[in-house]
Amino acid sequence: MDLKQHLESLKYDYVRIQGDLEKIESTGHSPQKMLEKLESIEQEIKETKEKIKKGS
């Protein structure tokens, strides 16, 4: 998978997890693990964008 495809996949996962997070919060469960996953994806998106920028 090239970097741009990987970035799109990460963005898709991020949006999906945000939706899941809203569902979890509405049921009163702890969102901590989902928030940690979002932070992890945010960091990976940042790193992937930097790699793409360096490759341009």
Oligomer: single chain
Q: In which range does the helix fraction lie? A: over 70%
Task: Specify the biggest β-sheet.
Answer: none
The unreliable regions are: none
Secondary structure class reads mainly alpha
Distance between the termini: 17 Å
Order of helical and strand elements: HH
Q: Categorize the overall geometry.
A: elongated
> How many runs of DSSP E, i.e. beta strands?
0
What does the model show?
The structure is a single chain. This protein is mostly helical and 56 residues long. The chain has one domain (3-55). It has helices spanning 3-26, 32-55. Helix 1 packs antiparallel against helix 2. It starts with a helix and ends with a helix. The mean pLDDT is 93.
Outline of the structure:
The protein is mainly alpha-helical.
Question: Topology, please?
Answer:
Elements: H1 3-26, H2 32-55
Helix pairs in contact: 1-2
